[in-house]
């Protein structure tokens, strides 16, 4: 509960609500110490739109230098320009996370002006298939697992020495409630998002001795371009939230404060966690 309260405080800080009454002196002192991510460097994949863009903006508002990327140069240019105009420290490059040479370019970009990397947030994800799991071609399996599951691990392996240089770091993976509760006709995607939860646990264990924490966020339905294909499904996923939840769909910004929190020193004893951001709780 305390960590969720801190997470909420981070979310509100991002919205510049600095006048929140803090209940205890101890909490207040700790929060002050960890206010800033200044001098930290964050790499965020799939960050020119939607959830990744909101996370990039929030981390940068908290003082981090943020390196954004996505597949399309135009999207990168637009996103960098928008955030720089807001006075934020942001650079970017084209990177399709499934391509080794693109990942190399991203790492080089992140190291251009800085001598290490502190945070990696893996947001890029794809779902090219609406259809049955067993009807999926090998090509579809390779694409979905390649981008959603393999790429975060491969990119992290490239960034690892640069995180170790900094004496530790924080990694955040982006799964989905589809990991817990399969969405019909998205079987391969569901499977990839469940695999990410396993990846989170394994990496958390392997990297703990190096002081690198690995957590994941598990979004529910968030209003972005990604969910356009929901309209092709024979039912409305937002009904779930209407029955169990906070009676609204999520906004990309709903996913941002929790990531800044997980990167911050307030979360320094939290690793291997999967945190749902769905307006309802799909698990015990
Ligand atoms: N929206 C939702 O309801 C939910 C989303 N998620 C997850 O959140 C993540 C982001 O989704 P969301 O923000 O909604 O999607 P958006 O479509 O709004 O944004 C996706 C971003 O990722 C980039 N991108 C796509 N493919 C790649 C790739 N191969 N390499 C690098 N960048 C890429 C896109 O830019 P470009 O086209 O230039 O590459 C864009 O910047 C995904 O992993 C998704 O599975 C999870 C649960 C719910
Ligand atoms: O792709 C997705 N579509 C969704 C709809 C509802 C909840 C999660 C998701 C996804 O991750």
Assigned CATH superfamily: NAD(P)-binding Rossmann-like Domain
Small molecules bound in the structure, each named once: NADPH dihydro-nicotinamide-adenine-dinucleotide phosphate, isatin
| Shape annotation | globular
Separation of the first and last Cα atoms: 14 Å
**Over the alpha carbons, how many angstroms does the gyration radius reach?**
18 Å
Quaternary structure annotation? single chain
Number of helices: 9
Task: Name the strands of the widest sheet in spatial order.
Answer: 3-2-1-4-5-6-7
The CATH topology is given as Rossmann fold
- CATH architecture name: 3-Layer(aba) Sandwich
Please state the average pLDDT score: 88
- Write the element-wise H/E pattern from the N-terminal end onward: HHEHEHEHEHEHEHHE
- What does the main sheet amount to? 7 strands, parallel
- The structural domain count equals 1
Helical content (DSSP H or I, runs of 4+): 40-55%
Strand content: 5-15%
Structural class: alpha/beta
Top CATH class:
Alpha Beta
Which residue ranges are poorly predicted, with pLDDT under 50 across at least 5 consecutive positions? 11-35
Number of strands: 7
Pfam families: adh_short_C2 (PF13561)
EC number: 1.1.1.184, 1.1.1.300
GO molecular function: all-trans-retinol dehydrogenase (NADP+) activity; carbonyl reductase (NADPH) activity
Organism: Ictidomys tridecemlineatus
Write the layout of secondary structure elements.
Blueprint: H1 2-14, H2 25-33, E1 41-45, H3 50-61, E2 65-70, H4 73-85, E3 90-94, H5 100-112, E4 119-122, H6 138-165, E5 169-174, H7 187-207, E6 212-219, H8 238-244, H9 256-263, E7 274-277
Parallel strand pairs: 1-2, 1-4, 2-3, 4-5, 5-6, 6-7
Helix pairs in contact: 1-9, 3-9, 6-7
Isatin binds at residues 127, 176-178, 183, 220-221, 227, 230, 237.
């Amino acid at each position: 509960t305390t960590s969720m309260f801190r997470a909420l405080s981070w979310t509100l800080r991002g919205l510049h609500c600095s006048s929140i009454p803090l209940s205890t002196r101890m909490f207040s002192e700790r929060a002050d110490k960890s206010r800033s991510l200044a001098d930290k460097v964050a790499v965020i994949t799939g960050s020119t739109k939607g959830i990744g863009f909101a996370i990039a903006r929030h981390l940068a508002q908290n003082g981090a230098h943020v390196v954004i990327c996505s597949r399309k140069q135009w999207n990168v240019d637009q996103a960098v320009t928008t955030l720089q105009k807001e006075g934020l420290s942001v650079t970017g490059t084209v990177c399709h996370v499934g391509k080794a040479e693109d990942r190399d370019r991203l790492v080089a970009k992140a190291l251009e002006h800085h001598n290490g990397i502190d945070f990696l947030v893996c947001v890029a994800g794809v779902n090219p298939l609406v259809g049955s799991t067993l009807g999926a071609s090998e090509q579809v399996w390779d694409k979905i697992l390649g981008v959603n599951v393999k790429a975060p691990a491969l990119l992290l392996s490239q960034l690892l020495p640069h995180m170790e240089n900094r004496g530790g770091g924080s990694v955040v993976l982006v799964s989905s409630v589809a990991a817990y509760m399969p969405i019909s006709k998205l079987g391969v995607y569901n499977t990839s998002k469940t695999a990410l939860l396993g990846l989170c646990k394994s990496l958390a264990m392997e990297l703990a001795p190096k002081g690198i924490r690995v957590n994941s966020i598990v979004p529910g339905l968030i209003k972005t371009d990604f969910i356009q294909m929901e309209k092709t499904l024979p039912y409305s996923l937002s009904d779930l939230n209407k029955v169990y939840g906070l009676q609204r769909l999520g906004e990309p910004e709903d996913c941002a404060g929790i990531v800044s929190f997980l990167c911050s020193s307030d979360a320094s004893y939290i690793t291997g966690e999967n945190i749902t951001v769905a307006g309802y709780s799909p698990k015990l």
